[in-house]
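Kindly inspect the following:
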Amino acid sequence: MSLRIVFMGTPEFAVASLSEILASGYDVVRVYTQPPQRAGRGKQMRKSPVHQFAEIMGIPVHTPESFRKPRVINDLEALEADVACVVAYGQILPQRALDAPRDGCLNLHGSLLPRWRGAAPVQRAIMAGDKQTAAQIMQMEKGLDTGPILLSEIVDIYDDDTAGSLFDRLSHIGASLWPRALAALGRGGLVPTAQTGDPTYAHKIDKAEARLDWTKPAHELECLIRGLSPFPGAWCELPTRKGFERVKIHLGVVEDCSGESGMVLDDGLLIACGEKSLRLLSLQPAGKGVMSAEDYLRGRPCATGERLS
């Protein structure tokens, strides 16, 4: 338990890891997180979830805008930490920062590396229809998620998983790996395993990807919807009495029937796709909460034979 640990993380996903490390009795000497951002209707400055949790736990917090500044790395080196635990920090660390702790920087990544290296591994795995992913702790190198694997746990992707549900599960499974990894590190028992196989890259989600293209197979669209739920949300434009309105789709189910792509096939929001059809089950009009298709249709009937924009 004598390890001096630096923790680097920003979103809610990382809070479980910091909590588990602290609960296991390790000494976290400092937390690094992204600077506060403006959020909400009032655009007030809001601290990251990791920042808020660290303050509650009484841990010093630093929020440098960039690790490219020498003084920031000088400050990190002065801590004489044994290891840095990194979880969705949101900054690229230069080599000097990676080398600052005695045993370097360990990163929790949510995929079966080398598949889905990069920024959006959880979303990409669901969007691609993968049946499994993983929570993996790896040794950080200068390359993007190229380092050797130190600890890994396979995670099944269920047919009804969304990015939100899979993020939540990976967050807690990944958090449970840290005490095992740190205990092994302390006794010199961490064994690195080189990544094998052809890498794929989980590029950041582009806004243009979120629009549903009805010429694509229904299964592909159903995976896209789950991979982008709850944020940023896949969307389409549904017909109304006054034209079309943009609606986010949070859940759909594939049905084995066909028609002209984009055509409404019944009065329950069954939409023909390039292959089979997709029934929309959970929707969110602009400025509204998430609602069932039944509730949506009460005020916005969508007739059989209409075409989606």
About this structure: The radius of gyration is 22 Å. The mean pLDDT is 96. The chain has eight helices and 16 strands.
